[in-house]
Amino acid sequence: MLLEMINNRIEHFPGDIGIGYVDLKSGKKCYAGNCDVYPAAGLAKLLLLIEIFNQLNEGKITEDEKIKLADERYYRDEHAENEVNPIISYGIARYLDPSLKLTVRDVCTMMMVISDNTAFNILLDKAGIDKVNDTLYDIGMNKSRINRFMLFGKADREKEDDIVDNYVSVSELTALYEKMYNGQVISEDFSRRMLDLLKEHQRTNIIPYPIPDDISVAHQTGLDEGVVLDAGIIYSEEPFILAMGVKNADVRDAEAVMRDITTMCYENHGKQ
Fold first, then answer.
1. Host H or E run for residue 231
2. pLDDT tens per residue across span 248-258
3. pLDDT, tens digit, for every residue of 196-208?
4. Domain ranges in the chain?
């Protein structure tokens, strides 16, 4: 029933769309559309967080270790000439005192709660791209990949066609959240801590929008030109996972259909 409703809603959607759904009580799953890879946009932050927490668990880094925001590898004015690792934040880092030092814990919070792009680049530089991808492979995410830092400014965008993007698979996201829900990503404690951060994510205009305010949603969004993603766990009486990706589409059209699908899943979960 639910799958039929979703397929009817996306049948004539003018773009690529993929939906993954898991009923966490019954274990039943359904997938619609193209659930393969999409440009990751902000979902890359969740992939990176896994490796940061993995290195915390292994003792390679510490939560209280401090990082200076003004490091030229992470921070620059958006009008400056393009250099190696040219970074400008769409979060708050660019507005803070450049001499400020933040802990790894604080930078993780900035990255996940307000989707701060400078925070992503700071942590990716610390973790290492190869290490991130090795860990993704180890947990079964064979198609999702981090290939680059976040890009900003006119000079970056002009070169974007020559740069390999970050990618995430909708089907792998559903599996990831299921493992996280069951305490199987790194450890039970780190799985819980990841979900706690995801519950604080402040972009709430897609999955959380039609969900009653008293129901928690642990999710992460992604937004880029023609690309919208949202994936997470809805902690209703019978919790469920919903992962959605859209590409090659108008952003407002994408957000509207994703909200509709969220409503369908919330009102009909358990009936698929």
1. strand 227-234
2. 999 999 999 99
3. 999 999 999 999 9
4. 1-37+198-272, 41-165
